[in-house]
């Protein structure tokens, strides 16, 4: 395991019913291939040494002895390999015959797991041949020359670097209380399922859903390998399912009904699973009494690490097929939050500062949607443009046009005179465009909005977004403050998509062109004068870095607690040639520095609805000391 990733694989070998020599040779091919690809955990189908469909041949001592010989051959073969392999075979224990999975590594039989739940319906009559683990008293046996105590006690295998895995067999996962429930409660982070499942119309979708749900419920990686081509088709057909899930998400899936052997591999992020678990109080409570035998594996080879799984560079952005649904959900949450606050305060007026930028546009659209749903007159929405020293014609015109088209009340109050007087009052040179110059404008605008709200018995609706909160890109007691903030749970990159979605709705046909131009306008606070052509001179992303990078950093730091080294690895992989390593390192360092230093602004945020899985509300998801030290994070950034 490196950077928290464990490479796992589901193998579906070619098989001949009752031909152990052939089956061992095919298993060895896939073991060798997996080892060459640096797979750490490898799962084979149920009864893979003999074939699942031997039926009454399982009563034959010759087949049982040959299966044990086959395991011995695999143990010998595995001496040259690092990969941990799980293979299926029948095992005799006293007067019982058990359907088992053997865990093999580097010439050692690490453990044997008997199947718990045996199907005995339709075409499956396993109880005709096998006993359940529930029927087994602890029994000492020799298997493939190895002394083993065979028992029903749950077994969790722990690798040298700390990853833990467990094994269950086919029907076990279909049971009301699968063994993997206890295994994961006892610490297993990855479950390997040696399976056999026949194909029926509609069954595959149910199976995929079942395994996905079990992976999600247990917050685990789940490797599922099922018997395929070569099993008997006397009455049913086996399609060879190979699937790997991580916390309910399908990472890879093989080709069903393939006539060729398959090896499907993926990297499971164990650190991500651990974060999910230790932040989920339900999981913590459920695991209190779980117990299992812990079995130590041998070290896996120290191979060079290469990240193989795809990493989405825009983790907050939904896929195209989910875009409309997600945007509607966001708007519904924002609208419901604002509506409740208006009804609770018996208020039918809001004040919004409209700059012609993305954030204020979305806040205005949420106000319009809320007023329409409540049956309030849109004239109760007071949009205020407050041009200052850096306001461009483009943003000003878009702001005015949008308000006119939406039919709200409009006001325009220039802040130039008031801020100029303020500079005189505090003795500031207006030619010095420093923080005082910029923040005085932001605070003047907030004062205007607050005082107007008092005058009109209205609420000031805040416009700042999640990305700005993370970076502290807001003026303290300026645009940082409002009476209710509707955008605080939405990152900057996602706001662009929400506004674009709204622009394409039929009811906003008239506003579409203006909304699209707002989306396409460079992001800027417009606090310093425009250039000679009247264009925006102060571009936010030139100052604090690309929002797509910061939103990426924000997601993985807050959602999973990843350290800078891992975020750096993921970002390089996700963005490819879009940013070089030095650029990513520079802005990651900026993010870490600003995230820590600006916590004091987040400690006194106004109310606002949580929208996604990440929130920076001091009353909800993120509670942090305003004077927490960033040294550890910045030191790791320096060492990248």
Describe this structure in words.
The protein has 640 residues and is α/β, with parallel strands linked by helices. Helix content is 39%, strand content 18%. It has 20 helices and 22 strands. β6 (120-121) and β7 (124-125) form a beta hairpin. The chain is elongated and about 100 Å long. The two termini are 20 Å apart. The model has no long low-confidence stretch (mean pLDDT 94).
For this entry, give a set of tags.
640 residues; alpha/beta; 20 helices; 18% strand; elongated
Calculate the terminal CA-CA distance, rounded to whole Å.
20 Å
Shape: elongated
Question: Mind describing the biggest β-sheet?
Answer: 7 strands, mixed
SS element count, helices: 20
Share of residues in helices: 25-40%
Structural class of the helix and strand makeup?
A: alpha/beta
Unreliable segments of 5+ consecutive residues: none
Task: Spell out the blueprint of helices and strands.
Blueprint: E1 5-12, H1 20-36, E2 41-43, H2 61-78, E3 84-93, E4 96-105, E5 108-114, E6 120-121, E7 124-125, E8 139-143, E9 146-150, E10 155-158, E11 164-169, H3 179-185, E12 190-195, H4 203-217, E13 221-226, E14 242-246, E15 249-253, E16 262-269, H5 270-278, H6 281-286, E17 293-296, H7 320-344, E18 350-353, H8 358-374, E19 381-385, H9 393-406, E20 409-412, H10 416-426, H11 435-456, E21 459-462, H12 466-471, E22 484-485, H13 492-503, H14 512-520, H15 540-544, H16 547-560, H17 564-575, H18 581-597, H19 599-602, H20 631-638
Helix pairs in contact: 1-2, 7-8, 7-13, 8-13, 9-14, 10-11, 13-14, 16-18, 17-18, 18-20
